Amino acid sequence: MAQETTERDNPPPLRNQPAPPRRPRAARPRAARLRGPLLAFLIASGAFCASWVARGTYPFGSTGRAINDQANQYVPFHRALWDLVHGQAAGDLLFTWGGGFGQQFLSDYYTYLGNPFSWLAVLVPRQHVDLAVFAITPVTMGAAAALMTVYLGKLHPGPWWQRGVLGAVYGLCGWALSDASYIPMWMWGLVALPLLGIAVEWCLEQRRWPGVALLVALAWFGNFYTAMMATMAACVLLAVRLIVLDRTGAQRLRAVWRAGTAAATGILLTLPLLLPSFLSSGAAQPTKAAAFDPVRIEVFLTGMLPGTYLWGGRPRLYVASLGLILAGSFLLNTAIARRTRLVWAAATLLVVLSFQFPPTQYVWHGLAVPNGNPYREAFVFSGMVVVIAWLSLANRPRPLHLALTAALLVTATFVLRHTNDFGGATWPAVLGGGAVSLLALVLLALGEKRRVLVPVAAVLMVGVVLAESTAAAANADARRSRERWAKPAATSSRSITQHFDAVRSVDGWPAYRTDSGAPQTSYNDALALRAQGPQYYSSYLPEVTYKALEPLGYGYKNDGRTFFGVDNPVLDAIFSIGARVEPGREKDSWTARKFPAPPLVTVRSAPYTSPNPAGSVYAHQEDVLGATVYGVPPVTRGGTATEQTYAARCTPGSEAFWYSPELYGTLVSGGAEKPLEDRMTGVVRLGEVPASGRIDVTVRTRTQNATAGEHPVGCLDRAGLAGAVARLTDTGATRVTPGGHSIEATLPKGSTGTAVFAMTAVPGWQCTANGRTTTPTPFHGLVSLPLPPGTDRVSCTFTPKGLTPGLAAATLSLLALASAAATGLRRRRRDRV
Question: d(Cα 103, Cα 537) in Å, to the nearest integer?
Fold first, then answer.
């Protein structure tokens, strides 16, 4: 029987004895040190790209690549980053004018663009930004695999190619392939885990405190959500290592102290991004996240089988069969110290059990109810499985133990075969991938005496991970695309190019805004097409923006964190929209039209209250516009619950509009059909009122126990609206100059009353009138400023809440980091002398 050891290749100092002086390592060529990480990078990124080729996915085929928020958020936000870097954005890093009528941007940058590889998007032409976004996933997977290879080498020495293969197994875990492959910022969590693992090892070695802090900062700069999970995992790794290594109490305390202080310093470095994002999250429109409901145990266990894709918010916990077989042999491998085996196994078991226990699950998610898939920390478990797989492989597991583990894997798959959603690539991965993996490991064991078998084993191990992971990724992509929410969308096409060109052809910012119109390609078309309309989709969309736009008749979804545009002249006048883009007659063509609009800053001499029925969307619009432009007639309702009829009378020649946020179905009026999607639809244009003055509307709906309400119809007097626009223009600002996160306006001499800015009152605005600081006041959810006598110049500047204290904390942290680095440098120079 092999002798049990803990760290046999690098024994720790004896208890109560000072650590011996560190002997310089034998210099190895840089190329030799990079071989393992490079192999891991190539396997991981290559397998994922190969799955695109297998599926015929864009750019290797015609199948759409963008899934869900990848099309609606990530590609548009990366296009906004491109505009920002190339000086073509309406806004800057703190604020954007390109959507939601002006919104904070710093928190969105941190959340959606924090992955350092997101900057690949600014290196390509704008029309290819979407390709760069897709490339972020395999590049990040490869980087995570490479860093895991380095971390495994710090845990235990071993052949570079074996570490590289297992590093790739981690980069291609089920969470990466099935859960986060289309979410660039979350993918950085895959990198953060081995990054922080390396930091833990430096703390145990009593080395590189500044380096540890910088690694923590790098992890948190990428994405705070998954970095938080990776940091918790790093705490587990530190605890395990402190137990299995033979250290004195003082050495353990020093390691914990170094880790804690370095982690705090690194996180404080990110506070200029972290604190504003935290405060923005608190001010965001609330969502209705459901309570955590653990999946059934058989579903949970099925998620550990290689190649498995489970529908919906299920756990994707698997790694390739090679990693599972090696991990399973860990407890049986007597070449590893008993304490090491028990502690690592117990830690891995406790981590995976914590995913099913609601209190610990909330801790993993930052004490918040997960909105979406509740198992977003699954990559932590996969990382720990790969660690114990490596410890077993590095200590040469016996073929018999490997065979027993493989048989157990086949048995578990057979037992779980009837689990809901079981199928796809699971059996091929278990039987085919498992058999090849077992053969490779047996050949590797035999290669200790017959060296010619080692290259064969290496080829088999690389090949099986590459092939099995490619199949698993293609299977996940194929099965996910059958779900309605994950139907792939186009992010590049002739229509999108023509749409962008049409928006640019009528751009008039800042004289007026341009609305990119409908139908939308994404929920963030204003950002993607460089327009300035209301379209915006962000987890940080403020509650004040929702409360400003919803009563005016704008459509929304995601509990009010996504707003859509509507073609309504009154709303155009309120928000200074002077151009709109619409589909042309020819396929994929777009046309643009311009119309008069007031400036971005107008002056209201006195408060105004609409004479129309209070609470109706049309009265709200008039209150903000400051003029009566609608007729809101009574309606007569008839029909049935599923086919409702409405009739009303308006002035002939006026323009009729409809608003029914509770109904989902089809609206029929004047021989034309229009879709109704309850709150998503907003105000709908019906057309000109006929000479009879009668308006008839039929709604075929599937909505239960809901109607269009008391005042669904409003008839617009276009001449009256033209007069109101002319008055607002005459009394409004003569010049408006928006900056990146500021706006300044020159008013006509003698202006009195209130200056109203055509932007929602998101938290963070500070204003001045004639250079004197004045507190802005809300005007129906918009920023407004009372005008002292003689005011002819007003300005407002946006500063994200928390930015100033965040910068102060980061400065102190940077000083501490520089001081520690300088002290260490002086000490090393003194020791050399």
Answer: 11
Regions in the chain scoring below 50 on pLDDT: 1-24, 26
Could you tell me how far CA 183 lies from the centroid of its own chain?
6
Q: Both tokens of residue 825?
A: 């440098």
Burial label for 449, CB within 10 Å (0-12, 13-18, 19+), is exposed
Contacts of residue 244, Cβ cutoff 8 Å, sequence gap at least 6: 6, 337, 339, 340, 343, 344
d(CA 652, CA 161) in angstroms, rounded, equals 80
**pLDDT at 67 (0 to 100):** 86
* Other Cβ atoms within 10 Å of 5 Cβ, number: 13
pLDDT the model gives residue 64: 80
Residue 713 has phi, psi (to 5 degrees) of -105, 135
Closest alpha carbon to 597 in 410, 829, 758? 758
| 612 in Cβ contact with 630 (< 8 Å) | yes
- pLDDT tens digit sequence for 730-778: 999 999 999 999 999 999 998 999 999 999 999 999 999 988 898 899 8
Output the pLDDT for position 531: 96
- HSE (CB half, 13 Å, CA atoms) of 543? 9
Q: How far apart are CA 347 and CA 237, in angstroms?
A: 9
Asked if 244 and 340 touch (Cβ cutoff 8 Å), the reply is: yes
Secondary structure (DSSP) of 381-436: HHHHHHHHHHHHHHT---HHHHHHHHHHHHHHHHHTTTSTT--TTHHIIIIIIHHH
**596: helix, strand or coil:** coil
User: Tell me: the pLDDT tens digits for 123-149?
Assistant: 999 999 999 999 999 999 999 999 999
Residue 5, pLDDT score: 40
Supply the DSSP string of 438-502, one letter for each residue: HHHHHHHHHTTT-TTHHHHHHHHHHHHHHHHHHHHHHHHHHHHTTSGGG--B-SS-HHHHHHHHH
